[in-house]
Amino acid sequence: MKYHAEAGGQHYEAEKTGAGVRLNGVDHEVDAVWFSDDEVRIAVDGRSYRVFVRPLEAGWQLNVLGRNFDVSIEEARARSVRQRAGSRAGEGGQHEVRAPMPGLVVRVLAKEGQRVGAGDGLVVIEAMKMENEIRASGSGTVDGIKVGPGDVVERDEILIALRPEASGAEEAR
Amino acid sequence: MKYHAEAGGQHYEAEKTGAGVRLNGVDHEVDAVWFSDDEVRIAVDGRSYRVFVRPLEAGWQLNVLGRNFDVSIEEARARSVRQRAGSRAGEGGQHEVRAPMPGLVVRVLAKEGQRVGAGDGLVVIEAMKMENEIRASGSGTVDGIKVGPGDVVERDEILIALRPEASGAEEAR
Amino acid sequence: MTLHEARRLRRVLIANRGEIAVRLVRGCREEGLQTVAVHSDADALAPHVMLADAAARIGAAPSAESYLSVEKLIAAAKRTGADAVHPGYGFLAENADFARAVEEAGLVFIGPPAGAIETMGDKTKARAAMIAAGVPVIPGTGAVSSVSEAAEGAARIGYPVMLKAVAGGGGKGMHVAENRSELEALFERAAKEARTAFGDERVFVERFLHDPRHIEIQLLSDGERTVHLGERDCSIQRRHQKLIEEAPAAAIDDDLRRSMGEIAVRAAEAVGYSGAGTVEFMVEGGEFFFLEMNTRLQVEHPVTECVTGVDLVREQLRIAAGRPLLDGRDPPQPRGHAIECRINAEDPVSGFLPSAGPIHHLEIPSGPGIRWDGGIRPGFDVGLHYDSLLGKLIVHAPDRSSAVRRMRGALESLVIVGPETTIPFHLAVMEEEDYRANDISIRYVDDHPELLKRAAGELPEVAVSAAVLLAARARRPDRGAGTRRRGDFQRAGPGLPAWVTAGGVWR
Amino acid sequence: MTLHEARRLRRVLIANRGEIAVRLVRGCREEGLQTVAVHSDADALAPHVMLADAAARIGAAPSAESYLSVEKLIAAAKRTGADAVHPGYGFLAENADFARAVEEAGLVFIGPPAGAIETMGDKTKARAAMIAAGVPVIPGTGAVSSVSEAAEGAARIGYPVMLKAVAGGGGKGMHVAENRSELEALFERAAKEARTAFGDERVFVERFLHDPRHIEIQLLSDGERTVHLGERDCSIQRRHQKLIEEAPAAAIDDDLRRSMGEIAVRAAEAVGYSGAGTVEFMVEGGEFFFLEMNTRLQVEHPVTECVTGVDLVREQLRIAAGRPLLDGRDPPQPRGHAIECRINAEDPVSGFLPSAGPIHHLEIPSGPGIRWDGGIRPGFDVGLHYDSLLGKLIVHAPDRSSAVRRMRGALESLVIVGPETTIPFHLAVMEEEDYRANDISIRYVDDHPELLKRAAGELPEVAVSAAVLLAARARRPDRGAGTRRRGDFQRAGPGLPAWVTAGGVWR
User: Fold this and answer.
1) Which of C130, D118, D129, D161 gives D96 a disulfide partner, CB atoms 3.0 to 4.6 angstroms apart?
2) Minimal Cα–Cα distance from A63 to chain C, Å?
3) C50 CB within 8 Å of a chain A CB
4) Buried b (16+ CB within 10 A) or exposed e, C331-340
5) A60 in contact with D at a CB cutoff of 8 Å?
6) What are A66-119's pLDDT values in tens digits?
7) Which of C81, C19, C84 is nearest to C48 (CA)?
């Protein structure tokens, strides 16, 4: 059985094999003991981990050694059907810089029309008494500032629209 | 709203009042804060307790200060309807001595036809490496021994049938 | 074991289950050792299996087919490449044949030499060895055949005395005489009862202790040096099962403490002991008498760890690896006071009947000076095949009264939804005046039948009240999950009305 | 406070939230004191509210409207009949006006006199008071107006030195000069930058510490006697936020320890201190310099409690009640080694970005030498209004290397399903060689950027593998809840094949 999975912004072509799991073409030996529905001890290539499982709408939240991964997964067949039927969303000439967490906008560092390079600060958001500078991950031109100081933003809310360089900057994060 | 409740073998006529709960005719002031669906902090007559809640089929298991109570509860109206419709079960001239927990019968102390008094040992059941003597709670005549040494019994399985004295012995427990 | 011959252990098979297996897995890991758990079919999903580096099934649920099977354990150790075996306590921990079989299989037995286990495991041999070593035992006679012989013995021993059946045991056929005339009146009856009960009319005379304490000394020996780590008071027992243990024993003075420690060291040296062990004494009125020696880690070892800062499992592992105990240092003085409550799956309100079934919800207390050594997890099904110990709640505080208060708070925060447990019993003890005043003996539980009534208390009505609220809530779905009625808290304005805690907290 | 004037406290309002409020509720209860929790609207269902004897709502979620509102807190104390206020740390704990308002309302402020808070809270006043008391401060000049004046100061102080903007702060506008020629080259640039950044071109010269440790001394004073309880090494910081703290500081010798302790006591006495407090120092090459004094309980107080056996909250409460500290006894010597890891709702893999949301599942580690001081419960929604500290994981073990291993095991057993936390960072530190060798300074986190990569590791692939198994399982309902595939454990016979733990445990 083949699957498409997404975790931490990465895409994985996954397949259940006899001895384990194939991820992006690499075979891993995987062995598991289910201690309950939400707790599994899993050995991957001879190293073993306790994993805690919480069901999400289209996948699972998996906790491993202190990290939480939201993994969305679907059968490859289902996906190709859905892709043929669906529309292509989220395309266009703009990249959007989104809030990585909810918080309060304390300063906007970028200016409309400004050229920014990778690592340049764009917006400062305060949360949990810390100021967090949201930076550009690639270069481009500021094409729209969507928030101002004092705004309360949710996670993934758009902060800045950026028109990337011709070289194809990645989405800022 | 009136309820009938059973807990720990006791019957309670219960009623939700404005200030709390009336139990078997006695008013109690009750105040509660629900911290989640399965955890409540409840104050009864000015003393407060943390109570953990687990749903059962016809009631709840409630954990208070280390004790677990299976409380079955139903609305008085529903109960009276059910009682009129239902049959009277569990009647007869015999009392049954049942296993208070699962375990292994190691000895049967009572003999068929023997007269026993309150506190007399009837059967010894082993569980968790401890021998537990099951005793008569009232006097009567042994009218049937349902188990023998080596039998594995479940909780509430009948061990001994007892014909009570005319004075009306309680069920042994 | 050759003394201080360093040998490197790599992988330890834990020949046990429950909380002690969990404790040992953790202890081994901290020493850089891998662990192999063993499990019966009933324990395939038990916490010690979950935590260990490897697990081996050793048989069906009954102990005789799994945890008590010497062959299966040795085979599992071989199969998993273990080079040492830790027996824990109970099961085969004090079985000299097992210790021998482990060593003969070329594995290290993490415990004393088989010979020491054997001597201490035989009551008669142990008593003889202790008398030879100058360790005080409870004064007694051999079998006496007449009233005058009994009276002679009693005069030597000192009244009160007990007449006991030679063939007896478990408290049956014992008669207490406060003086000679009582002894004379009782002698015939005791002999007759002994004949009826055991088919052997012989009786003997032994010193009777009115209300002794059970106090035991923790020992460590690396074969070259034997030291003691102070004492534990384990007087709170029921049917010879310890329920609460403490360290130090606040009832004895430093002279007695020192003397008991020295005698305990002598007892261990007399049998060529090494590893961790405990010498148990009955203590009354400044005198102490050898009861037995446990040639293994005790259930109650954590209270000693708390007050001394010594990790006894670490010491066991290091001694087994041929290293000197305590890295060659002197044993530390105890600091503060520690109490352990055994949380058993037994219902104290119903005469401590065993209680089984799944753990539906588990909440472990945390915070300063609180330790939980547990062997359960949510979803684990507590069965009836093994003993009833679910875990141990241990507190450590600057002094005994603080420790008692800390334990009360910890017990209130320990939530086990599922089988009945001894938590209500312990809560009642922590509030009982004699216990708080440390006025206790091994008769404490018998002397305080009201404890069990107190453990019952008003709680059924609280539960029913909660059920009524739940039933009323169920009728109004708008007051669903997590909602809170406004004003619940400070209904009556100033002061602390309904919300003042009293439930087990303020009186 | 009149010295040793015994006054009976009955009910303490805890003017705080989170783990410290939980800690204080427990501590008060153990001393026989009732507690009143206060809460903002965001915290109505928080653990400290659940545990306290009474609770008072004090306002909306933002701190300024609740936990920072002096009037609301005083009003809540009056309304609930509290007779004392414990400020915890943070919020109003070091606000002299709050301390005064509490006392003026006729309540006991559980902390130092307002005057001591005031002096120590003002950097300039504090430095002057410390110099007057003979406490070493980092050598520096006043504002210098020329290169030659700067060089003169630097010669007196000794190189390396730092040029800092008088109006600066937070690490901006600082330049390090290793010798005079570097200083001369940097002077103009530093002045210019200072003018640009702060509109004030004045700079001053200060001794530069290459890689100092942050070591602090815990103090207790009852107004008559001031003692120190040894030190803590809090060098592992990020942006001046402590992440890991230990006691004792294994890097300093007994002479330095004694000297720092004596100086810290002198510092406290110089400002008329009473209660619990901490004097922070920068330590480098056998020298130490006063940084600041925290006039309150510290977040990291548990490591001192572990190694000394002293309960600092209990001492605070007793001192506030006019009783002598430590019941008049001398402070104990430290025993063993303790480490604390701050578990923050921050994602170390994404530059420690704050992370919020509900706690879906919480599993707290237990066992010997493990302490959890937490402020969360399952279902609690971690918001963004307050700081990110979810709880503190503390271990205590016989020595530092055992403590590091114990912490690793405890971190592996601490499960928080919900927001991202600093657990992966701490796991990486516990395996990092410099940390294990105790070769650390306040620059440790900057010097080890690979830690955050290590915290990322192969875990995404493990998660995806688990998801694939879950997806495959979901297709076969016969392999549902709790089932176990036979043979999972010892698939390849002897040895430990797939099941040998490696994940973070064996390498």
Assistant:
1) D118
2) 16
3) yes
4) bbebbbbbbb
5) yes
6) 999 999 999 887 766 666 554 343 334 567 888 887 888 988 998 988 998 888
7) C19
